[in-house]
Each structure stands twice: as C-alpha cells, then as structure tokens.
Amino acid sequence: MSRNAESTAFRSALEVIRAVEPRVADAIGAELTDQRESLKLIASENYASPATLLAMGNWFSDKYAEGTVGRRFYAGCQNVDTVEALAAEHARELFGAAHAYVQPHSGIDANLVAFWAVLADRVESPALKKAQVRQVNDLTEADWFALRRELGNQRMLGMSLDAGGHLTHGFRPNISGKMFDQRSYGTDPTTGLIDYDRVAEAAREFKPLILVGGYSAYPRKVNFRILREIADSVGATFMVDMAHFAGLVAGKVFTGDFDPVPHAHIVTTTTHKSLRGPRGGMVLCQPELADQVDRGCPMVLGGPLPHVMAAKAVALAEARRPDFADYAQRIVDNAQALAEGLLSRGATLVTGGTDNHLVLIDVSGYGLTGRQAEQALLDSGIVTNRNSVPQDPNGAWYTSGIRVGTPALTTRGLGTAEMDQTAELIHTVLTQTTAGANADGTPSKAKYTLDAGLADKIARQATDLLATYPLYPGIDLS
Ligand code: DSN
Fold first, then answer.
1. Pocket lining: 44 vs ligand 1, CB cutoff 6 Å
2. Which of 118, 326, 348, 472 is 20 to 30 A removed from 73 (C-alpha atoms)?
C-alpha cells in the first residue's frame, strides 16, 4: 500500500466535505492533530487502520438491510450480504466460534442481543410448548409474567462495578439492571483477584439465569473454564463480555482456560478496543443459540450499519494476519512494563500488576482522587480515565483510581522502554499534584494544583516520546 494513496484518499475526502461544511472538515483534521499529539492511555481506545476507516466512509451507509444474510426485509441487499457474510466468516475463523452475528452497533447492543437470545432460548422450549405459540414474539404479557416467575425473575450474576465489571452487566443505571435481578461477585480484598470459590458460593445461593464473565477495569486474566463449571453447576447460561480483551483473544495471548470462546455459551464484544476495528459490537455463540442471536434485528436493534459491517470485515481480516498476534503480545508486554515502571517508582496498583492490556493505579497513595489525577494528567498531555477501585470510598464519580491501557500506544509502535518513560511522566505529575480545598476549607475531591510550567514541560516530553512513532504515518493532510 503506497503511503501516497492514503494521503490522497483522506485529502480528497476532506476536500469534498469542506465544500459543503468546512467546519466539519476542520474538526476532522483537528481530531487527527489532537490524536497525534496526545499520549493516549485510555484502555478502551485504539487507532483503526486507514483501510478500516475508509471502509466506513461510503454508500453502504445508504442501505437498509434489516434481517440476516440472504433473508432481508428489503430488496437489493446483495452487496450488504457480501460484507456481512465476510465479517461473520472472519469472526468465526479468528475466534474459532460456531456462529458470529456482526450487526450490533455497540457493546451494549451486543449485550442486549445476547440477553434476549438467552431469555428467548430459555423460555421457548418448555414455556412456548405450554403456551402453544410458535415463537417468543407471540407471548402475551400474562405469559411473560408467568415466565419471569418461573425463571426466578431473570437473575444475573456478574462482576461488581467497583471490582472492574461493566455497567451493562446488570447495574441499575443500565437497561440490564431493569431487565434482571442482579447480584455481583467482587474480588478478594487482600489480593484484588477474583475468588472463584466465592463466585461459586454466590451462584449456589442466587441461582442466576445468566452468569456473566468479563470486565472493563480488571487487570488480570480470568479463568473461563472455572466460571463455566460454576455456571453448569447451577444450570446458568455462561456469557462472557470480552469487549476489552478481544484483541488478546484474537492474537492468541489468552488461550486455553483464558480464552472465553470455547467455554462460554455466548460471547459479546466491541470491535474497536484491543481488536482495533471500527466502533461497533459483535456476538459469538454456540450453535444452539444462533437462531435466537440472529433475531437481534429487529428485536433489539434497528437496521444494521452496512458500512460498519464492511469495516468490521476489513479489521477482522487484519486481525487474522500473523502480525496481529505479535501486536497482541506487545500490548501485554507494554502494560507489564508500564506496571513495573509505576511500581518501581512507588505507585500502588490494584492486584499489584497486570496480565492484560490495562493497569489500575490507586491514586489515593498520591493523596488524590481519580478525578484530580485524571485532570492533572490531561493538563500534562496524558489522556487517561478515572475509574473506581474495589470498595472505592470516593464512589463512581470522583473515584480513587486511574485506568491506563496500552492498545493505542502499542499500535503507534511504542515499546517497553517508552512505557518506562511514560511511567516516569505519570508518576512525576501525580507526585507534583496537590489536592485542593473547598471555599469552607474542607478537602475538595475535584480541585487540585499543579504548576503550569511543570504540566507544559511534561506535555512537551510526552510529545517528544511520540515523535519517533507518528500516528498514521501514511496520512499527510497538508
Ligand atoms: N466505555 C468503555 C470503557 O471505557 O471501558 C466500556 O463500555
């Protein structure tokens, strides 16, 4: 691929956009500049390839294609069929999955499709027979009421939010928390690790319909074989949300007990995090759930996004190349180097380190809340996000943690030496930031002071660190 082709493609696209609304073209250009100049450590972000980005910017966006491949509610979907089938094939091959559904628009959509598929599957066999209806859509409200009672009011057991679980795993502010009666498993207060015996105990007591594995802020591997055994022991469906670590599964860093695909009945993911694809979601499942999963649209999804499915096919094809495994391993090597660098300088890390792509710093050791630390780092050109730590005294808004992840910087080419330098920059900012006070003298959870000169100096050092690793080196918009 000639670099010139990438520059020409994006320059031409911006020229066309600029002729209609120049402010949008300017914002797109500014976003590239901002992304190029910032040290991006957000664990859930990455940089998709130019091919993936370009696959999204075209007339596939114009097409409605509700239904599934070869069985659409609209005419003229032959080309959408091609890209959807390709994306699903790449996903099945990449993850060794029996079935792949690539229509979900996001992670929450993928989880909704999965929840509905499990519920429908559970109620259809015995209950539909009883109700003498053909499929779950035909159930009356009274049928549903009776079924919910029969199913133990749709219980879900997932990882608690402050231990690193995700909002969509049954928590109140999310629809999953309204659909399901939820209980959480946490982590061991001393080690910060999942205590599988406690999970088994909670499952025995609660008898969930769905046991959920997966996380968005847990820095360790999870043993999915054990979780499947726990699910089986109580007759639960085992679902894994691998959105954060899908790239590590694709790149065969997580194999055997740590690969969710052979162990879970159903696996959901986003495609834009460590997997490095377009912004979207996906569901993988065992054959017995395939029919229900394919009813995702129109049950909980609107029309699929064919342009994004095209980009998913491109990104998944990229992830099947041998160099993706090398990339996935470097993500983990970098996270471990970053963890080592922070630990050696005196930081406190949840679980004391990492096995995956993320590190969770407990910033209370620096006398700061997560919010203060996040802002001070941002002032210094380092983009992170605040995150709860287990049993966080500061709650989910202020928090006591900073989550840092390496997928994006690894894509740029930074390695373990640069991770040590990054640890130095983070540690310097956090040690030089002082928590502020409210007007009445009480400690503030948001205010802080950091010398502006120091913040500028760190930001320059961050830019210098990135200079050797240009982002999108083939794209010159000038
Ligand atoms: N917002 C994503 C994250 O940052 O982990 C998960 O939904």
1. yes
2. 118
